[in-house]
């Protein structure tokens, strides 16, 4: 069922944590990279802030391309599609930023993402990870879905106090302040 | 009469199941592929979610092109038009996703689609089939139109309980969780 | 006077039948094809549905180009303008579909259209002719304007009952279910 | 003063007659043609109908280019700007159609337009001249401005009855049904 | 302080006179011309009429390029940016037309503009200068700002009566009916 | 924590001072320059005035490129992204103008920006620095964030009176009237 952990470690799909008026939820960020001309497509009923977030994710990767082991001309020679299923559900906000970068880097390098990892955090053009809202609700939803590891902004560490111990004991929290740390923990080792 | 089963197994036209304020309905997804420059046209008073659904369908096919037996440069060298008649009726939602992929693959490979098949299901960039709403109403409308086979999301199997036995006995239900299964069952065998 | 039959069999102009809040009317669909780069222009205060209808008309012709005796590269090497005078009157709906295809094919092949013919019907990408509304009012307006032949969707045959005998006796009705039939009856024989 | 007749026979500027909520007025249609890439610019606070009217004017000229003595590639090798001063006054409607064609042809052929001529009439893609509203008010405004010749749609001849004799005696009316007649009367003889 | 006369005769910046709900004001029209591809950028919270005014200014210059001593390909080989500071203040109307032409010609020819000159007037594609509103308020604001010369439309001469003698005695008014006269008086002699 | 001074002197990121309904705040202007085709991207929920401000910043740099030591073709051969984190917070106004120029020049020349410097001021195409609002609130927010130097418009010097002595004693104010002065004081010496 959708809303549950992936059944294998996927390439090009990362699991984000959302916080809406209806509570926490998990969402898949899917990335498809095909030969093209540098067109970026963003679908899944995304709000303006989330679309800008995707553009920042792309720019971050373009500026770190060499360091990330990505082909120099990847942007001009491919079309990139970022889609967030369930297509009828509106989504917005900047907190999927690190999830988008992770899904993009995975699609561009064929590195597998650990399926038990959920993540949330705004990302800047320089890769800093900024705090987000709703950590408690996001964490509870991640727990329900069977995830075991949460990558989160270091600036949200204070919010861990609000999360029930019964949930925290099942989860590993990885507080990060830079995108490099996210990638280190999100990819399957050895990939 | 429109709203009835096709009179022969068509190429480039698949039958979807819609669920609106006025109940269930069937709708044709028509695809035309002509030599061009990679332009995608979407018509038939489609809402934003349905248009995004079409873009996801295209991206899915672009990323699986080799496996689907479709020419490598099909996207850059053709213009693609997806039209959903009756042009005055507003249509929306992601549930025509698998129908769009099926009509597109048929048009691109000249494989015939079984005219007795109706289908409904959201599709993701990776080909997963996600659950939809209104299965009961969609099924009853399919039955009225003379369809005999319904391809539907595996996650909707629980909704089969709500459909009257008198209708179910005339129909074959094919629950699927991936787009590959849809294509296997939608195309005429041997094509 | 505008709103009357043409004074000779025209090329690139077909007569459609409209049905508005003010009753039936006839309208000219004018097509101009000039050397260009594949630009399509739609004017005459057309609503979104009517514009999509024009795009479906173009796609139908592009996919049947060889069969219709139209040059292979006609679309990339011309600019096409579809205009519907009286420019201040809003027009909408899909029922001018077959009229648009007829005017386009005439302009592209230099075949003359019989000036005594009026027509109405939605067209799909595959050339099916779908039913329309307001046949009675459209027919009465055609009669007033001096037209003698009405091409109409086969699915509207049941609506002929509502038309007064005094009008029907002056008119020839040609019910059609495919675009091929429309063209057969709309063009001047021998052209 | 603006709102008066030109002081010499101009090239690329024709005088139209407008009818607004504030009564009749005359307006200049200015056309500038400069080497470029086929861009069309429309300014002067023009409404959508008036903009479409300009596009129809251009298409008419493109389809008659040879007959009008205009260079074959004029459209692809020039940028065309149609401007209607006074820039703060909203303008709309199709009745400036024949004025736009006249100003465009003048700019493209360097033929001078008779400065004492005002004109009004919708134009179709095939050059038919369709009737307009407000002939009485337009005529009185033309008279006030010192114009002596009014080119008008043949279908508006019946409206001449409403114009006071004291004004009609100073004016020559030229009723036309096709654009060719407009050009014959608008250009300075011998040009 | 902004709102005061420039401290030297600038290139590419001309001083316009504005009339808003808050009274008269002066505004700088800044033009930047850099090697590019013919892109025109208009910023400074400009309304639609003022943007169209800028486009008319450009077209006027393109059609007089040789006579103005401007390079033949200036438009295709440069990007042009017209900016009107203070960026947070909305501006609109056609009366900055002659100011825009002046700033553009200065930027394109490196001619210095006399810093003591303010100007107001709509410009047409053919260079005619049309009357504007608010001459009194504009003049008083120009006086406060230290300007000594006002270029204004000849058709506004009648409005000079309304301006207090105490202000008029400090100012030189130059009424003009064509853009050529504006440039003659705006540029530093010998430049 | 975001909202605090950078931990080292950054390249391509400058600190602006904002004034909103909620008081003063500091904001980072991030610039990313990557090989591309001259595309400018502006993200971070920026209002229209702030976007125009960014365009003016770009044009200023393009017109001074040689003097600033920036490669001649930098604009055509790169894509530039200006992002202002926190992506969910709306931002507007022209007062980030000098901050944007500074961040852009830093990114294009690899010069380090002094991390203890905050700045505010509108910039014109010619590099003049125009006054801004909210200097008091901006200054207090800068002080809270640990900044020690404030670059501000010379025309705002009168507003320094309103700032408490207890804050002023910790801060160095640098009033400027031209962009050159901003760059002189913003970059790390020797860079
Ligand atoms: Ca969900
Ligand atoms: Ca999220
Ligand atoms: Ca139906
Ligand atoms: Ca459906
Ligand atoms: Ca009519
Ligand atoms: Ca119709
Ligand atoms: Ca007037
Ligand atoms: Ca008119
Ligand atoms: Ca001011
Ligand atoms: Ca002004
Ligand atoms: Ca903040
Ligand atoms: Ca600011």
Can you walk through the features of this model?
The structure is a homohexamer of 191-residue chains. With 191 residues, chain A is α/β, with parallel strands linked by helices. Chain A has a single domain (13-186), classed as Ribosomal Protein S5, domain 2 (2-Layer Sandwich). The first copy, chain A, has helices at residues 48-63, 97-109, 135-144, 165-168, 179-186, and strands at residues 13-20, 23-35, 40-43, 78-83, 117-119, 122-123, 129-130, 149-153, 172-176. In chain A, the strands form 3 sheets. The first copy, chain A, has a 4-stranded mixed sheet with strand order 1-2-4-3. In chain A, strands 5-8-9 form a 3-stranded parallel sheet, with helices on both faces. The longest helix of chain A has 16 residues, at 48-63. Chain A starts with 12 loop residues before the first strand and ends in a 5-residue tail after the last helix. Chains in contact: A-B, A-F, B-C, C-D, D-E, E-F. At the A-B interface, strand 2 and strand 4 of A face helix 1 of B. Bound molecules: calcium ion (12 copies). One calcium ion binds at residues 16-18, 95-96, 120 of chain E.
